[in-house]
Amino acid sequence: MGMLREGDLLVRLNDVNRTQFPEVCPACGADATSSTRIAFARSSKSPNALNPAYESAKSVMEARASVGSIEIPVCDTHDLSYEELARARGVITMVGGISLVALFIMSFTILGSLATGRSLSYLWYLGLGMTLLLLALSAKLTGPNALEKAISLVHYEPQAGNVILRIKNRSYAERIVELNPMQAELGIVKSPAENSSTSESPFS
Fold first, then answer.
1. What is the dihedral sign for C-alpha 157, 6, 86, 96?
2. Which terminus of the chain is more solvent-facing, meaning fewer CB atoms within 10 Å of its CB: N or C?
3. Are 28 and 126 members of one domain?
4. CB-based contacts of 151: which residues, under 8 Å, 6+ apart?
5. Residue (of 198, 182, 193) closest to 19 by Cα position
6. 69 and 155, same domain (yes or no)
7. DSSP string, 47-96
8. Which of the 8 DSSP states describes residue 160?
9. How far is Cα 141 from Cα 52, in angstroms, rounded to an integer?
10. What is the spatial distance between Cα 120 and Cα 97, in angstroms, rounded to a whole number?
11. pTM: predicted TM-score of the whole model, two decimal places
């Protein structure tokens, strides 16, 4: 199971293919006008397997084709394509990597000039500031978006067909259970047990 924190709200679905989701957007609560899909990863053993921020567009599509996905009603604002999101994050990650290399080069150059008393053009300092800005933007843009913060897939058992979702909004989670009383269960992550640094799932 993915990394859990104390207090995380979880919903376990015993038959995800027959699950009915509320007709509201989990990210903002507005009436749903569209839908998007959350792709299952090939394996729940990989710590980043269920996070599109760490998956290439190809791996996301392969995972969806080989295992499946769930469709969730959302508003137009949060109607996101995970394939497009993965591609965009790949480009942003590359820009961030190049910026990091440039940061090291400029930092060593500027520190060297200060140590030896040499003067540098103001363009070096301007470039350093722009590089730091690019790194900050890259870190922000590759992080989870509003929909991913609202609902995420943390566990999947292919044989049993069980799915566990982490959901931020309690009323949304409770509504899922109301709509699916025979196959949905609500739980809250417990505090770590003694001699353990990992929070316990309520379904373990």
1. negative
2. C
3. no
4. 26, 27, 38, 72, 165, 166, 167, 168, 172
5. 182
6. yes
7. TTTT-GGGS-HHHHHHHHHHT-EEEEEE-GGG---HHHHHHHHHHHHHHH
8. T
9. 12
10. 25
11. 0.65
Residue type, 15: D
> Does residue 50 carry a pLDDT above 90?
no
| Residue 173 to residue 71: CA distance in whole angstroms | 16
- Half-sphere exposure in the Cβ direction for 197 (13 Å, CA): 0
Phi, psi of 3 (to 5 degrees): -65, 125
Q: Does residue 177 carry a pLDDT above 50?
A: yes
**Alpha-carbon span 52 to 63, nearest angstrom:** 11
Instruction: Looking at the structure, tell me whether residues 113 and 171 fall in a common domain.
Output: no
Sheet containing 9-13, strands listed edge to edge, beginning at the edge strand earlier in sequence: 151-157, 162-167, 9-13, 184-188
What pLDDT sits at residue 104? Answer: 93
In this structure, the answer to whether residues 76 and 88 fall within a common structural domain is no
Strand 151-157 versus strand 162-167 pairing type = antiparallel
When divided into structural domains, the chain yields a total of: 2
The pLDDT value recorded for residue 160 is 65
